[in-house]
Design brief:
The protein contains 12 helices and 14 strands. With 369 residues, the protein is an alpha/beta fold. β6 and β7 form a beta hairpin. The chain starts with 13 loop residues before the first helix and ends with a helix. Bound molecules: pyridoxal-5'-phosphate.
Amino acid sequence: MSQRIYYTKPSITDLEVEYATDAARNGWGERCYEYINKFEELFKAHLGVKYAIATSSCTGALHMGMAALDIGPGDEVILADTNWVATVSPVEHLGATPVFVDILPDTWCLDPEQVESAITPHTKAIIAVHLYGNLCDMDRLLEIGKRHGIPVIEDAAEAIGSEYQGKRAGSMGIFGSFSFHGTKTLTTGEGGMFVTNSAELYEKVLTLSNHGRARGQTKQFWPDVVGFKYKMSNIQAAIGCAQVERIADLIQRKREIMSLYRERLSAYPDIELNAQHEGTVIGAWMPTVVFAQQTGMTRERLQTAFQAANIDARVFFHPLSSLPMFKARLENVHAYSIPLRAINLPSYHDLTIAELDRVCSVFSTLEIV
Ligand SMILES: Cc1ncc(COP(=O)(O)O)c(C=O)c1O
C-alpha cells in the first residue's frame, strides 16, 4: 500500500527549531515576553494593522473580541451557516443568539443579501468568515454594517495570505482573528491572534486578556474586571516568529498547490474549486472541490474513493444549524447542499508533485454521471 497522504502538515525548518530552542533555554526572566512581543510586531507589519495580541487560539481571540464589544444576552450575531463551530462557540458562551444565514454558491462565504434580511434591532455584530481562505464580499458587508451601525468582525482563521482589493483578510473589520493551529498555513502548534485598528478595543481586549488587569493599574495582582486567560507562550511565539519570517514562502506554496490542482482538474467540467474573484487573491489554505448537482456525486462516494487510495480527504463543513445543539435552518439551501457533494484536498507545504498527481488520479476512478 502506498504511503498515506495527509491533508495538512506544518512546515518546520531549522529556523523554527532554533528559535523554539532559544526560547526554551533562555526565554525566561527578563526575556519571558521577548518572542511574544516580536511575534506581535512581525504579524502587525505583515497584516498592516495597528494592534495585535497573541492568544492561545483563534477561539480565544474571538471570545475576547466579542466580550469587548459587549455582546451578551439578548443580542443577535449574524454568521454564515457554513463554518467551523469555533466561530459560534464564543457567541453561545457570551449568552448571545447566533443567527445562521446562507452562503454564496461560489465563494462559500456569507451572502450579503441574507445578512441584510436577517438584521433586527437586536443585531449586535456580523461575523465574516473567510472560509478555506476564500474571501467574503467585504465591501458589501462593511457597507451594510455601516448603514445599520453594526460592527463587522472578520474571522480570518483560515485566511492567512488572502487579500481583498490590496488589503489583507483580517485587517478590514472592527477586529480580526487568526488561528495558528497545526493545520494552518502559519502554525505555532496551537495559537491565535487578535488584531484591530481601534485603540479603544485594543485596550479593552488587552485588559481582558490579562485576567482583567489594566495596563495602567499600579496595584499588583489587582484585576478591575473579570477577564480571560487566553495567552500564547513565549515558546509558541518563537515558532511563530520563524513562521512569519517565512510567510511569503508559506503562502506562495499554498497558492502553487491550488493552481496545480486547478490545472490538473480542469479536465472535469462539472466541478468547482475555490473561487477567486477580480480584486481578490486567495491564500488557498484549503483547496476544495465541489461537484455540480447533476453529477450525482456524493460525499460518501468521495470519502470511499480517497480512503481506498490512502489519502486524507476532509469533509466540507456541515451546516452549523444541523448540529444537535442548534435548530435546523433548511432554508439555507447552499449550506445544506454543498457539503453533500464536496471534499477538501491535501495541500501541505511539502506535498510533492507525485503526491499531488496521486490525489488527482482519484478523480479518474470516480464515475461521474
Ligand atoms: C473559521 C475558523 N474559525 C475559528 C477557528 C478556531 O481556531 P482555533 O482552533 O485556533 O481556536 C477555526 C479553526 O480551525 C476556523 O477554521
